[in-house]
Amino acid sequence: MKKPTILLIEDDELDIISVERSLKKIESEYVLHTAYNGIEALRILRDTDLGLIPDVILLDINMPRMNGIEFLKIIREDTKLKNLKVFIMTTSSEGDDRFEAEQLGISGYIIKPLNYTDNSKRPDSMDAFVQFHLRKILLDEHI
């Protein structure tokens, strides 16, 4: 049986480590691919040799070169990629970002902690997402 795949699009190493740590708590196997910006993610998704169509994309909104909103606009216009499940990860609580992402058909919105030495902002946001949402998505897709 094919392992579920996750594409993480994130430019911050600490956030990548945090996501990887949270993902390890899933009690199932998965394959994680990482891209550091939207341009690199599009290359991965369009690479016919790789043939990657992930079960879930975890997408940072604020990145250099191509941000999450720009990336979303492009994949939503691509017939092969438009139906991918995309969850936005951001420290931004800007209503405009949330509204625009929702208009582009995201599956969910995860607020990242703002400070790694004091995780009081929402320390459980990623862990809760992994435990309650991502686990169900990955298991349901590959039963």
From TrEMBL:
Extract the SUPFAM superfamilies matched here: CheY-like
Q: Which GO terms describe its biological process?
A: phosphorelay signal transduction system
Keyword Phosphoprotein applies: yes
Q: Which UniProt keywords apply?
A: Phosphoprotein
Coiled-coil ranges from the UniProt annotation: none
User: Pfam families this protein is in?
Assistant: Response_reg
Leader peptide range in chain numbering: none
Limits of the Response regulatory domain: 5-127
Q: Any idea which residues bear 4-aspartylphosphate here?
A: D60
State the PANTHER family in the record.
Answer: RESPONSE REGULATOR RCP1, RESPONSE REGULATOR RCP1-RELATED
Protein name per its UniProtKB record = Response regulator
Supply the source organism for this entry.
Flavobacterium chungangense
